[in-house]
Amino acid sequence: MARAPALLRPAALVALLLAVGAEAHYAPALPDSAIAKPARQFGLPFTGAPGPNTWLLGQGYGNTTGAYRQRRSTYGNLQGIHAGLDFSAPCGTPVHAIGDGVVVDVDGPHGSPPHNVVIDHAGNLSSLYGHLQKRSTMKVGQRVKRGDVIGVSGDSQFTCVSAPHLHLELRDRSHQRFFNPQPFIAADWNSLALASGFGRGYEYDLTSPRRWQSPDTQPEARRGGRLLNEFAQPWPPAPGGAR
Fold it and tell me: Do 126 and 119 contact (CB within 8 A), yes or no?
């Protein structure tokens, strides 16, 4: 006679459900042929004019000096690069959907705490809105239009004075590939870069000093891939030695 399976303890059941939920969010990386090409088809996540009292481009996507310093820690699973755009903004600034789509995650397993939202778009693209101040009122499965407010910006350090900003990523729907959002978003990127709030540029590899030194030449990242910026002759060097 078969014995009935023992009931899982509550903690084990929660862990199992979280693991199943996380697996449901990740799949094999989609091929290029399945993903929409960049055509400035999206908009910015903020409205109104940029400025010191509204919002600014804080940190660009890619081989930034900030990401280089944390290539083996914070960004180690993203090949060492900053896999999104950071927009500096006071806490509570409304965040807008960059394109039409469907909400697929509210506070899902995608990092960028304290709160995040993921929207699926046409062309097998997904946008992640991270470091939101509070849990979004959006519901999974809810359709949104470009420009709809999907939350309010927060602070990655949870203080609203340390690092208030929005982290925006553009991924394939498998959440394995991370793209430079700039070619996909219609904006005056040259002007936005001039007023970059963090003042951070790109890390040099002095053996190939022109590589990855402009916003439109940044590499794609793959989850779990090898570090792209483990440079033989980095400049500037990481303060206190490489982490």
Answer: yes
Domain ranges of the chain: 56-215+224-233
pLDDT of 41 > 60? The answer is: yes
Q: What is the pLDDT of residues 56-79, one digit of tens each?
A: 999 999 999 999 999 999 999 999
**pLDDT tens digits, one per residue of 94-106:** 999 999 999 999 9
In sequence order, the 6+-apart residues with CB closer than 8 A to the CB of 131 are 112, 113, 114, 115, 116, 153, 154, 155, 156, 165, 166, 167
CATH 2.70.70.10, applies to 56-215+224-233: yes
pLDDT at 1: 40
What confidence category does residue 201 fall into, taking pLDDT thresholds of 50, 70 and 90?
confident
